[in-house]
TrEMBL record:
PANTHER family: ALPHA-1,6-MANNOSYLTRANSFERASE MNN11-RELATED, NUCLEOTIDE-DIPHOSPHO-SUGAR TRANSFERASE DOMAIN-CONTAINING PROTEIN. GO terms for cellular component: Golgi membrane. Keywords: Glycosyltransferase, Transferase. The keyword Plastid does not apply. GO terms for biological process: protein N-linked glycosylation. Belongs to the glycosyltransferase 77 family. Belongs to the glycosyltransferase 34 family. One of its GO terms (molecular function) is glycosyltransferase activity. This is Nucleotide-diphospho-sugar transferase domain-containing protein. It comes from the Eukaryota.
Length: 371
């Protein structure tokens, strides 16, 4: 979870007497994402005809069904040539989770008044679409392809801590209506539409009794807890409902109150907020590892991107565009044509009562919010 607005403040910090700006640059420096070599110069924009949105699911099935990777497969080859294999004896998720699994987006800023928003009634195109909206459409399409449920929640403002903490409360509530919740920041995107999430859960060792899984951050001093353990990135969270999971989220949500963890109070507002609170306190109370309570996802698989300097964080399956937050738009249109995106937007609007939850008037704790 990296935020550009924090870079200046971070540059003033020190770690054991060393300025963090130099550490930060050496670990997370990026090269500018190269222009897509396969993309020709853009033609002038033309009005995209809008087809019947009720037929959109048939269009999704026609486009993707024949390409979906089998949940029973043992291997997967990436475009980079990496061969991923599910080891013998690993817990296997071979039955489709369907609507029991929720892909969750949350944002306090989403509005019908924004011309680049998921909620705007006018057709979107790659000239006006924000990276935030493109990331949400990536998540929405991934859910439709695999039959998962989807929600975009307009989160209520936080009054006693930084706004990024809202994800903890929203995931906790979503687990009361769904068995599995996959939360992603809008700048985190699925790289393979055809790869079922059940297959990824099998590969990462998410067990039948596991509580949550998160990707590791780039391993540098600025991304380590007080004991030197690399933090996990809360911009991509997989959670499974259980009494113990609810208990864990209660501990996490209440961390800045300082009752269970007296030294956690400052993480209410200090960067990296809920991520640092989880890393410094909550995870130490649970078993960690494949098949355990808490499952770390390798940074290579679920964080970073292929253009950052740290080649151990390539975002192979889920890329996280910390600095280039408009990149999800380019990604979306490299894989989909304009008419498909417009149809997808219209399908969302046609079913907005199901997929969108306006929770902006709610107050925390969100005990009465149904997601």
């Amino acid at each position: 979870m990296f935020y550009c607005s924090n870079l200046y403040r971070m540059s003033l910090l020190r770690y054991d007497g060393v300025r963090l700006d130099s550490i930060w640059d050496s670990i997370t420096s990026t090269t500018s994402p190269p222009p897509s070599p396969s993309s020709p110069p853009k033609a002038p924009k033309v009005e995209v005809p809008v087809s019947d949105p009720t037929n959109f699911l048939k269009k999704v099935q026609a486009k993707f069904n024949s390409t979906i990777h089998s949940v029973h497969a043992d291997t997967f080859m990436t475009v980079e040539g990496y061969n991923y294999t599910i080891r013998n004896g690993s817990n296997r998720w071979t039955e489709p989770l369907g609507q029991r699994l929720l892909i969750l987006d949350a944002d306090s800023r989403v509005s019908e008044k924004e011309i680049d928003s998921m909620l705007t009634p006018s057709p979107l195109n790659d000239d006006i679409m924000s990276g935030r909206t493109a990331g949400m459409l990536n998540h929405f399409l991934y859910a439709l392809i695999h039959g998962y449920d989807y929600r975009l929640v307009k989160s209520p403002p936080m009054t006693d801590r930084h706004g990024t903490w809202s994800k903890v409360s929203l995931i906790k509530e979503a687990l009361k209506t769904h068995d599995y919740v996959v939360f992603l920041d809008a700048d985190a995107t699925f790289q393979y539409y055809r790869l079922p999430y059940e297959w990824l859960m099998s590969m990462w060792g998410f067990g039948k009794d596991s509580l949550v899984a998160m990707p590791e951050d780039p391993n540098s001093p600025v991304n380590q807890d007080s004991k030197g353990w690399v933090l996990w990135n809360t911009g991509f969270v997989t959670a499974q409902q259980s009494e113990r999971t609810q208990e864990m989220f209660e501990r996490w949500e209440s961390c800045p109150l300082g009752e269970r963890y007296p030294e956690c109070k400052h993480w209410g507002y200090d960067w990296s907020h809920e991520q640092a609170a989880f890393g410094n306190f909550v995870r130490y109370e649970y078993e960690v590892g494949k098949g355990k309570d808490l499952v770390p996802i390798p940074c290579m698989d679920g964080n970073g991107a292929n253009y950052i300097v740290d080649k151990k964080c390539g975002g192979v399956f889920v890329a996280h565009h910390w600095f280039y937050k408009d990149l999800p738009t380019r990604e979306l249109y490299e894989k989909l044509d304009d008419s498909f995106v417009v149809d997808m937007q219209n399908y969302f609007h046609l079913n907005q009562k199901k997929y969108y939850v306006d929770a902006s008037e709610y107050t925390y704790p969100l005990n009465d919010l149904k997601i």
